Task: inverse folding
C-alpha cells in the first residue's frame, strides 16, 4: 500500500518568513495530493491540492510543487502569519473514490 | 456546500459498553465515506471505507467485529464501537466524497467525535 513520509515534524518560523514542508510517497499510481490544515481539536481543512498532471499550483500565499519522478511534493507558505500556526498534513491518493493516505503531520508555529 | 456533520461531538462511556457515532453529509450525497481515528499528536489513520449498500472495507489491523460500520443511505454512515475499552479512547473523524463529483478525490471531513472510555 501507499506510504507517505513527511518532514519536518515541527517547524518554527518568524512571522513574515516562509515555511516549507516536504513529503514523499511510495506508490507510483498515486495521482492526487491534497494538503490539510488542522487546528487543535478541529477537523482537517483542505487548503490546496495538486494532481499529477501539474507540477506546481499556487493560491495566494500557499503553493504546492510536485516532482512525480522523484515522488516528492512540497507545501510552501510565504509571508507567514500567526494564524497559520496549526498542524499540516500531506496526503496521497490514487484518485476517484480511493482512500487517502496521510503523512505524519508537521506542527507549524509562527512566532509573532 | 459540502458540509459533513458528526454526532455526538463528545461521548464518555463505561468500559464494556457500545457507542454509536453518526456521520452525515448535509448537502450532498456520498457513495463513499471514510472513518479515521486520530490519537493525540498523531496523524489520521484510516480505519475503514464505508460504501453505501455494501459491506465496509476495513484496513489491516482494524477489527471489523469491534468497529461496526453501516452505510444505509447516501447521506448517513454510522460507526459503532462495541465493547469499548480505555484503549479505544480517541478522536474519530469521518469524511465523505460527493457522489456527484464524478470521482473527484476531494474529501470533506466531519468535525470529529472525541470518545473517552472510562
Result:
Amino acid at each position: 500500500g501507499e506510504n507517505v513520509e513527511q518532514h519536518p515534524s515541527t517547524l518554527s518560523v518568524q512571522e513574515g518568513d516562509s515555511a516549507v514542508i516536504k513529503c514523499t510517497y511510495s506508490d507510483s499510481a498515486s495521482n492526487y495530493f491534497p494538503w490539510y490544515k488542522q487546528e487543535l481539536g478541529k477537523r482537517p481543512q483542505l487548503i490546496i491540492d495538486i494532481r499529477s498532471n501539474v507540477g506546481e499550483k499556487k493560491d495566494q500565499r500557499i503553493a504546492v510543487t510536485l516532482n512525480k519522478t522523484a515522488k516528492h511534493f512540497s507545501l510552501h507558505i510565504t509571508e507567514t502569519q500567526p494564524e497559520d500556526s496549526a498542524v499540516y498534513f500531506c496526503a496521497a491518493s490514487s484518485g476517484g473514490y480511493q482512500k487517502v493516505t496521510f503523512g505524519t503531520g508537521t506542527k507549524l508555529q509562527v512566532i509573532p | 456546500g459540502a458540509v459533513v456533520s458528526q454526532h455526538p461531538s463528545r461521548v464518555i462511556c463505561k468500559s464494556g459498553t457500545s457507542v454509536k457515532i453518526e456521520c452525515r453529509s448535509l448537502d450532498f450525497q456520498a457513495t463513499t465515506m471514510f472513518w479515521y481515528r486520530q490519537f493525540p499528536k498523531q496523524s489520521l489513520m484510516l480505519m475503514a471505507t464505508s460504501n453505501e449498500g455494501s459491506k465496509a472495507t476495513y484496513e489491516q489491523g482494524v477489527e471489523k467485529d469491534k468497529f461496526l460500520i453501516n452505510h444505509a443511505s447516501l447521506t448517513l454512515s454510522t460507526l459503532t464501537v462495541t465493547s469499548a475499552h480505555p484503549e479505544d479512547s480517541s478522536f474519530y473523524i469521518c469524511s465523505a466524497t460527493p457522489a456527484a463529483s464524478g470521482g473527484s478525490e476531494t474529501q470533506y471531513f466531519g468535525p470529529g467525535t472525541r470518545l473517552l472510555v472510562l
